[in-house]
Amino acid sequence: xxxxxxxxxxxRRLQGNPNVRAGKPELSDPEYFQEFRGRGKPPSLDSGQxxxxxxxxxxxxxxxxxxxxxxxxxxxxxxSKARRLAEHPVFLDRYLWISMKEDQAQGLTWLTRDTLKNxxxxxxxxxxxxxxxxxxxxxxxxxxxxxxxEKSRKRKREDLDYCERRSAxxxxxxxxxxxxxxxxxTGMAAxxxxxxxxxxxxxxxxxxxxxxxxxxVDGQTETLIEVAKEVEDLRKENAKCK
Length: 242
Hints:
The protein has 242 residues and is of the alpha+beta class.
């Protein structure tokens, strides 16, 4: 068989406790089945079990059911031709259909006769084709999943960009004759020493007055405190991105 370019696998849980058909082998994982999706014919698989489903997501959307011989049998190779629902190869009273939630298609599943009739108004004695409402549900499902994937990728890119921006060293504007404020606590100690040195220089100046010196020191100390708060906020944000 031809191998699709890419195959996506969904693990689905069977509803209820299905009964095994007489003379059929037991499944390795009877509570679950796998829904494979790809473009083109289904691949040859070394793993899996009867009842797994392959969906060719290219129009016109052909379904394949995995049989006992590990071969894929198409539910309907002619989408325009109506036929009865595909039966599970192992379980009694299980038919292939589209699971729905709040009028939105969720994927393929195996449902009982009563569930099909009561929840979906679908009858196992009737025939159905992939064209029409079934095709519309499948196309809507693929479109919604594509949109969700795009939104998810966009959020991841935005989160990554945000973390990169927050991780980048922040450049602080330096006051006149004051060294650039570093973004570490260790560096702040050096800045405080520079402020003290500058204050001493002012105090020995012939033109300096005590109020003038105090004003300079108070102003730079206030700036240093503000910078320390911003650095701490930055560290917290960076920690979230790790």
